Amino acid sequence: MTPAKNILNYSYYPGCSLHASAKEYDESTRGLFKALKIGLHEVPDWLCCGATPAHNVDELLSLSLCAKNLELSNQVDGDLAVACAACFSRLKVTQHRLAENEEKRHQVAYALDAPLALDKPVKHLLEILATDFGLDRLAAAVQKPLSGLKVACYYGCLLTRPPDVPELDDCEDPSIMERVIGATGAETVSWSHRMECCGANFTLSRPGVVLKLSGEILASAKRGGADCIMVACPLCHGNLDIRQKEIEEASGRHYGMPVFYMTQLLALAAGVSTSKLGFGSMMVSPVSLLKEKGLL
Amino acid sequence: MKHSKMTLSAETMNLGFVKKVEQLSGSSVRRCFQCGKCSAGCPMRSFMEHPPNRIVRLLQLGQFERVLAGRSIWYCASCETCTTRCPNKVDLAAIMDALRKLSWDAQGPSKESLVQLANRLFIDNIRTYGRQYEMRLAAVFNLKSGKLLKDFMLGPSLFTKGKLKVFHKKNRNIGEIERIFSRIEELRRKGEAT
Amino acid sequence: MHTDKVKHDFEPKIVALVCTWCTYAGADLAGTSRMQYPPNVRVVKFPCTGRIDPVFILRAFQKGADGVLVSGCHPGDCHYMAGNFHARRRFAAFRKLLEFVGVDLSRLQFSWVSAAEGGKWVEMVTELTERVRQLGPLTEFRELELAEQWSGATLTTPELKEAYQAI
Amino acid sequence: MSRIGVFVCHCGENISRTVDVEKVAAEAGRLFGVAYTCDYKYMCSDPGQNLLKKAVAEHKLEGIVVAACSPRMHEKTFRNAAKAAGVNPFLCEMANIREHCSWVHEDRDEATAKAIDIVTMMVERVKRNKKLQPITVPVTKKALIIGGGIAGIQSALDIADSGHQVVLVEREPSIGGHMAQLSETFPTLDCSQCIMTPKMVDVVNHPNITLHTYAEIEAVEGYIGNFQVKVRKKARSVDMAKCTGCGVCMAKCPQKKIPNSFDKNLGFRPAIYVPFPQAVPNTPVIDRENCTWFKTGKCGVCQKVCGPGAVDYTQEDEIVVEQVGAVVVATGFQLYDIGPKPAGSAIEGYGEFGYGTIPDVIDGLTFERLASASGPTGGKIVRPSDGAEPKSVVFVQCVGSRAREKGISYCSKICCMYTAKHTMLYKHKVHDGQAYVFFMDARTPGKGYDEFWRRSIEEEEAVYIRGMVSRLYQKGDKVVVMGSDVHIGVQVEIEADLVVLATAVQPREGADTLAQKLGISYDKYHFYSEAHAKLRPVECATAGIYLAGACQGPKDIPDTVSQASAAAAKVMTLFARNELEREPIVAKVNERFCVGCLACRKVCPYGAVEEKEIRDRSGNLIKVVAYVNPGVCGGCGTCQATCPSKSVELDGYTDEQIMAMIEAL
Ligand SMILES: Cc1cc2nc3c(=O)[nH]c(=O)nc-3n(C[C@H](O)[C@H](O)[C@H](O)COP(=O)(O)OP(=O)(O)OC[C@H]3O[C@@H](n4cnc5c(N)ncnc54)[C@H](O)[C@@H]3O)c2cc1C
Ligand SMILES: Cc1cc2nc3c(=O)[nH]c(=O)nc-3n(C[C@H](O)[C@H](O)[C@H](O)COP(=O)(O)OP(=O)(O)OC[C@H]3O[C@@H](n4cnc5c(N)ncnc54)[C@H](O)[C@@H]3O)c2cc1C
Ligand code: SF4
Ligand code: SF4
Ligand code: SF4
Ligand code: SF4
Ligand code: SF4
Ligand code: SF4
Ligand code: SF4
Ligand code: SF4
Question: Is the ipTM of this complex over 0.85?
Answer without folding.
Answer: no
